[in-house]
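User: Round two. Same drill as before: sequence, then structure, for each protein.

Assistant: Same drill it is. First protein:
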Amino acid sequence: MSTKPRQKKELAVPRPSSRHGYVVLISPQNEVLLLHRVKTSTSYASAHVFPGGNISPLHDGEYAFDKEDPRRHYDAPNYRNAAIRELFEESGILLAKDKQDSLSGLFHVNDAEREQGRRDIHSNKIGFSEWLRKQHATAEPDIDGLIPFTHWITPTNLPKRFTTQMYLYFLPIPTKEHSAQNTATTTAQGLPKDGRQEVQVPTSDGGIEINEARFLPASTWLQKARAGEIILYPPQYLLLSIVSQFLDQTAPHQGPNSTVEELIEEEEKERHSRRNNLLQFILTDNPPWTDKFVCPKTMKLLDDKRSVLALDEPGPELHGSGKKGVFDRVILVRFDKDGPHDVDVCWRKDVLGDLKSAL
């Protein structure tokens, strides 16, 4: 009796998306913005996620490459436009600048125009770029301010897969001259005078997709996840862990005779220093975190039912591209019906050592 060879199951093709790619947005106080998604969401229901969303040809431009071309996964303007647009729709924070005056700071829009714009763009009544031009003829998304911070492709064992570009963005740190009382005076471009920056406060989208938008220190978000208060998926947990190492350091000691002005100035310097240390780390690793491509793969199931996810491979779509992932770390996670739990980031050598000892 002859038997036919079993055919290999065809992999689901990941589509270019920014919904599973996010903006790791850093506040002037070096806190991180997370959004609490509604429980009826078709993706990441009830989880806390970085802001981001699907690439839309209407708003963000067409794809430059077909689905078989590895370059479709690389950083590109449509990924960046989608990330900034979805950040605006979901949280109300607008990352846009005057393209004729790059030193003028982020573009300011009054609250009424901002909220109406969020609704109209979300419902596709108007394109994002067109809406920006209506605010001012030379306004454009600040895509140059986005710093690539890993690229993720959904594991091959899932039927619905995404290719996802992560970004890091630092909101400006106001100078000591900045105060909330004097920001009402603006330039013709809608920007605060004297180089001062608007302090943008995130808000939900009224419960359409987001219940709450909030800045907290990265370490606080991680503590909430470990306590079971919030749900964090592995990419968010890993990137928050990296950010926390640098931005959540202990504040510098202040002398007893320091003036208020000196304290403020020292704190500004410290926040800038922490940002520079984070940037140096992600830019100098091998490969740099700006160019790491990760397709998580299960290595082992532990006794506590957590999976050990290897992060070193970029996935079959990038085979032969020379792209590499995160080799020195692994993620431990237990997946239940409502999402991931007991997530942790460990050194690969420690986990592999434990596994070898057990064997």
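Second protein:
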Amino acid sequence: MTVTLFALFCLVPLWMIVAGSFTDESVLSLRGYSLLPDPFSVDAYAQLFSGRAIGRAYLATLFITGVGTVLSVACTAGLAWVIARRLRPVSRPLTAFTYLPMLFSGGLVPIYLLVTQVLHLRDSWFAVILPHLMMPFLVFITVAFFQQIPTEIMESAHVDGAGELRIFFRIVLPLAKPILAVIALFYAVTYWNEWFMAILFISDPDKYPLQLLLQNLIANVTNATVLPGGSAPVVPVYQLRLALTVVTIGPIILAYPFAQRYFVKGLTLGATKG
């Protein structure tokens, strides 16, 4: 009963956002939020999808999230496996290389110079992906998971003539599905919600991701008239903000149930040893 009440308590703000996005602008600006959309209106959604901005932003966010998650999971799993294997020439330096960024950061200026002056990734979606390519915390969570895999399995594979790469791809990765699902979900949420790096490195409006589009709309009300193409004389500002919020958070919420069965198992197995 307590868990049910807590769940309902958490869902109320989300439901009020959804209800507000379907509430007429005149009523919403006067009465504020309500649990039921009265009167019902889809003006915000009609204006939101009347232009091309939302479609381009979705394409940008899907690319950043999809490509970024795949690259991040691959890099994190590979680095964590090398650290977990404790190979003398490389494991310790890579452990220090991974751990130090958790304590010290080069700062915003070096990152900006690296991305713009060295890598020349201005106005590129990879400028948003690269700064989050590997999270040290997730690397060590994955290391802890890999260390729980029985060493007898690897020894048996070595006896049969399998090399490190074959062991990793044919044995370790199938066993690591729970932790891979967990870190993939963390990376996907990070990339989906990323807007700060987009502000720094993306100036082309055609390449704005969803979150940056939402941030601009919230920060400057006049952007609401530009977003749909400026064809409508009256723009439902508050309703439009809520509608864009619903459109933005919807896909990432729907993605969680697919990883739910691995989520608890991956976190508990990866956190009991380290």
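The first helix runs from residue 2 to 21.

User: Perfect.
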